[in-house]
Amino acid sequence: MSIKTYANAIRDVLAQELRRNPEIFVMGEDIAKQGGIFGCTRGLLDEFGEDRVRNTPISENTFVGAAVGAASVGMRPVVELMYMDFIYLAMDQILNQAAKIRYMFGGKVKVPLVVRGQQGVGRGNAGQHSQSIEGLLMNIPGIKVACPSTPADAAGLLRTAIRDDNPVVFIEHKALYTTKGEVPDDPEFAIPFGKCSVAREGADVTIVCNLLYYHRVMEAAKELEKQGVSAEVIDPRTLVPLDIDTIVRSVRKTGRLVTVHEAHRTMGFGTEIAAQTVEKAFAYLDAPPERIGAKMCTLPFNLGLENAVVPQVSDIVAAVRRTMYQ
Amino acid sequence: MYSKELLIDIYLVMNQIRGFEEKALQFFQKDKLRGSVHLYIGQEAVAASVIALLNDQDYITSTHRGHGHGIAKSRDLKRAFAELMGKETGFCNGRGGSMHICDLDKGNLGANAIVGGGLPIAVGGALAQKMRGINNITATFFGDGASNQGTFHESLNLASVWKLPVVFICENNGFGISVPVSQSTSVEDISVRAAGYNMPGYTIDGNDVIAVLDTFSKCLERARAGEGPSLIEAKTYRWKGHWTGDPEVYRTREEVESWVAKCPIKRLRQYLLENKLATESELISAEQHAAQDVQDAVDFAEASPEPDPKTVMNNVYADEEAV
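ok -> structure tokens follow
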């Protein structure tokens, strides 16, 4: 085990995988000499050279599309999007091409592609650099979606993403890059997709959350404990595939579900989890599920306004109390 | 300068494409094909000539009007017609249809129903070829309409910056659905756009097999030598509507007939006879061969099974358990 930041955990896995397989390469904006604006590719250029660590022009649809083409013929590109908000520029290549190629071509092609980058609030980046995109991606058959909340999850899930034969969108959070945690040193350490992590066991309520809100929920859970409420905290880690069974099992135990994310509340992943939980555990619920997410409002620049849009720890605590009719 | 065998083979492929497309039209009119069917009739010289100079390790990407490219690259009319009919034996097992014919084994990275969608994928194919250090190239076919998509400009720029072995082949057939090129495109010759991306650009008569071969050979040589991409604009014309149900209100019968008179197949036929590269009986034999291939393809497709609805969820992911 080593203590690493979330950014270094990502960088180290990229380096290990680049060393392991010559068909893997990374590309994106400012990722070579600069090492990416958050440092996730720092030092890779020196070790692997400009052929495998490629700066791209600011042409998201085309460099993502070029990665789709290279992946279709067996290369394993890992593309960095500087901000996940820019995925919308590349959406044709992700949604109409990468996600559909395998199916539409009768299963004769694999697209082992990783598109990774960061999203979310935390740096005052306003409306076009702070969005959370995962809910939209869950509605596209053919791609997988991973969202690591800790340095260890970032390392283990990224290795699985790179070794996966499907297009994977790997969503990091900008406010987590400097967070630290223990990461296994084993260069084969990988976390399988579709397995929730039960971050905290509890008896009274199940809270499902990820990325920055995993940390905020853990804070809320401590506050709830002081109030005599025992919260079970579950991080799905991958939204596609989604380990609904672990969540349902937990809700059957606790009788209450609260979903928490930074993404807009409407059609966020909490909506899907709440719906599936109601379908599978209706009789066990003691209260309607609570869904916590950002208001349906563009993310504002001003910090006070931004905080008014995204959920606060107090909002999470209040939602849990509502499920207890308090 | 081109061998008799090469030219007669191109003649055969052009006749296969023509016969295939005529059959597709008949089948659509008889309600035996569903979906959008975009016919390549009139443009056969471009696909047949370019692809005649490629090998199976060279890649192509194609468009919604992709039957001709797919036939020329795979030389398998059976699986192509079966795909048009949505049959299990088609190139895509009936999952893709007319607009998505793909055959990776023969280097066809796929037709594409998004205008301009194939260009970045072609750039990626060429990137893989370059990174692997193999002496193969990628040819990407697209229409005049795609030359106004961002992906055209981004792809030319990226291929140029990275000196990738890709040849961009714009088939300017006069219309983006109903809109004439003059109303949609800032330049008369789309090839001039190559200058903006520091690569050679050529505008040629796309109905002239020899012109296509001459120009594509130069671009191919440049790409194989590692000197980077080129852009070819092949001016041609689609005889049929944008798709099989097009009312064609945007052009006159006289205009269409003036292009029918410039038939690329008749033109090659005449060239071969005049230059004594083929005898009348050799050409008739190629025509009969093509007609038989088309009939065999249709018979194969009609006799082929429908896909089993129980398999509908197969291949959403490479590992089936993911949902």
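Chain A touches chain B through 48 residues (CB under 8 Å).
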